[in-house]
């Protein structure tokens, strides 16, 4: 991983994580007219799925060498626009012009020939194939031929050129961490030497150094005249990397913004169409010393003797770079991976080992890293997905239970503002962020002792994040112990009582009170004993 590049200067007032007074949504301005040399001009794009109008007349442009952010709440239509540009979705109507030439609609091949490459949060890699084989797919155009030897050598050179020497080209993609899979997906798109690179929440599983790696690649690309469409819910990243932005709301353009000319509150208001609220809630006051979960010298693949204790009603953050044992810790504690410990208790009861079904019975809940592989059945309904752990744990028949639980299901959908046509809609047709809400929502109001969270706000819009923070704090108030790994350091700093940082499968540091800062988390994450800074302005992270 390269040394983090310092953030370029941002005009005063940009992207403040704010607790200031709410502001009303500024009125939407008409989209700016594209200059003659615009690389991309999208005009009046519409996409309907039967009665669902995912995108309703979206117009925007992107100039050569520019990073254009596309922002909006979950379900606003960002991915649908990105997929239309990529040729993966055929517009119902509208035009897309790239480099002065109309793009044949709904053709991935034509989009690629026009120099468009994409990296999505929902990875398009083949998990059973090696990294080298995945890089040899058509999107990685320079790597031709499937000769193992040649493709491994070419992939090694490519990974080295992109400063990713830690990724083994011979490893099956499915065995990599989600963050490394995302890096491979981005490297594959970059290998196609794009004129227009679309990053659809491609940074969502990356920790700060991974994001800085991505920004270095973006700056290389734009310096060479390439353009980037950057879709993200992380407003700090947008402040740092985007030159301009287009805000989508309900499938329409709600407004545009330029670098340095906005605050978080203004952008949130524009996305939501209503006032912004305070961003991070404080962790609740603890009223008991009871221990919800404790483990001494927990060992598992990737864990080298982790000891920790989680109090009832405590929000305990897990920090660190991905690949240092966070995923393994949560999986081991839930019984999704074999593990042994010297001592292991849940709500004071000793256990020797566990399995997912036993964990649910013991009162545990788990939001896994990869919602598509471990969290959801996309071909099942929203309601069935919310009930999935309960059907398995108690072996109840599906349909009657679904009817009995209608009130609970509707309550969760409403509490988390899941954008759905109802509990019978297939989970697979929900936007990514709304799918993520289901994986969290299934554990709400279910008398849990402990909830294990792996980056639960990944891919979730800012308003939904606030709702989720509120839900986490409420669970803690009810006495639930929360163990929370996040790739967003600010969440750990603001919403957790305490943070343990993992490094090489061990607890490297425990941070609380005045020591609980973003720099301390990041420093401990790279094995540093002193404090290091990833930003020019500490206020950005604190
Ligand atoms: N294949 C589909 N069938 C039916 N509806 C769909 C389909 N794909 C998307 N939609 C709907 O279109 C709307 C826009 O979805 P889209 O994925 O573009 O949103 P998004 O802004 O990318 O959201 P997120 O931030 O959650 O990824 C949503 O209401 C979604 O449910």
From TrEMBL:
<protein>
    <submittedName>
        <fullName>Ribose transport system ATP-binding protein</fullName>
    </submittedName>
</protein>
<dbReference type="InterPro" id="IPR050107">
    <property type="entry name" value="ABC_carbohydrate_import_ATPase"/>
</dbReference>
<dbReference type="InterPro" id="IPR027417">
    <property type="entry name" value="P-loop_NTPase"/>
</dbReference>
<feature type="domain" description="ABC transporter">
    <location>
        <begin position="40"/>
        <end position="275"/>
    </location>
</feature>
<dbReference type="GO" id="GO:0005524">
    <property type="term" value="F:ATP binding"/>
</dbReference>
<dbReference type="GO" id="GO:0016887">
    <property type="term" value="F:ATP hydrolysis activity"/>
</dbReference>
<dbReference type="InterPro" id="IPR003593">
    <property type="entry name" value="AAA+_ATPase"/>
</dbReference>
<dbReference type="Pfam" id="PF00005">
    <property type="entry name" value="ABC_tran"/>
</dbReference>
<keyword id="KW-0813">Transport</keyword>
<keyword id="KW-0547">Nucleotide-binding</keyword>
<feature type="compositionally biased region" description="Pro residues">
    <location>
        <begin position="24"/>
        <end position="34"/>
    </location>
</feature>
<dbReference type="InterPro" id="IPR017871">
    <property type="entry name" value="ABC_transporter-like_CS"/>
</dbReference>
<dbReference type="InterPro" id="IPR003439">
    <property type="entry name" value="ABC_transporter-like_ATP-bd"/>
</dbReference>
<feature type="domain" description="ABC transporter">
    <location>
        <begin position="285"/>
        <end position="529"/>
    </location>
</feature>
<keyword id="KW-0067">ATP-binding</keyword>
<keyword id="KW-0677">Repeat</keyword>
<feature type="compositionally biased region" description="Low complexity">
    <location>
        <begin position="10"/>
        <end position="23"/>
    </location>
</feature>
<feature type="region of interest" description="Disordered">
    <location>
        <begin position="1"/>
        <end position="35"/>
    </location>
</feature>
